[in-house]
Amino acid sequence: MMRKIGAACALLAALSMAALAQTPPATTNYPGSKPVRLIVPFPPGGGTDILSRLLAQKLSEKNQWTVIIDNRPGAGGTIGISEAVRAQPTGYDIVMGQKDNLVLGYYLYSGLPWNPEKDLTPVAHVAYAPLLIATAADGRFKTLDDVIAAAKAAPGQITYGTPGLGTGLHINGVMFEKAAGIALNHVPYKGSSPALLDTVSGHVDLLMSTVPSAMAQIKAGKLRPLAVTSAQRSSSLPDVPTVAELGLQNFDNSTWFGLFGPKHLPESIALELNTQVNQLLADPSIQQAILAQGAEPKAMSMTDFDVFFRKDFKDAKATVEALGAKIQ
């Protein structure tokens, strides 16, 4: 009997050692005193930047980390992603990716030197946000029907601004044109802020925006939201109808935000980041802060975020091909 017990103990010890060998090492010393760079692939002031700065501030307050924002705008957000892909997989360089640059951008831009499925590590989903069609508060359009009627009367004359070629908001504009049977004139900018300012000042007729990017100007009474392009109304703008409610059926387009690291990022570091972000997203005060910006907080495990990202990446190929969009 003693021999059997001894053998069983030896077996349990061996299994425990094997399990420990497969368990990621503890990361209680991460990031230590070293700063973490959070790359933002868009200029200051836009929805991605606002959300990134909120996350960086809360991570610093909660854990005494030093999180530095590094804005790397351009080419629909793909320049910032390229910077993250080139970084060393140490956990000290992460990026706030989103549907625009990671999912749509890959299929829109020719010759990108990276593939997001192969060259990045999904770490933590942060939030999603409805997209918005808006105009200046003192502009001539009061409803989306006004826009459609004017565009049909003068094809190609109504202008709309976006943060740039190949962004999800550019795709949003193309989808709106096709769904409404109209032709608009796309005016790409280098980021959300200049597009927003030109819309408010009347230099362009319409704005394609995320709700977070536009929220401050809506609250200030300078921007009139005409419709959101998600399947449901935004909880931040409950009085603004969806495009489907206004007659454009099967129109559902929104964006999401999430943290990514370079490929080969150690699982222990990725899990630590995921845990810390999810703990923040469970805090009612932080949830309210994100909602106040027009985004919807949503935590995911690393596994769930990976599955979500890969499905969206696969689905986006068909969307882009159906629209016939391509940027050389």
UniProtKB/TrEMBL annotation:
Leader sequence residues: 1-21
InterPro entries in the cross-refs: BUG, Bug_dom1
Entry keyword set: Signal
Similarity comment: family membership: Belongs to the UPF0065 (bug) family.
Entry protein name: Tripartite tricarboxylate transporter substrate binding protein
Organism: Lampropedia aestuarii
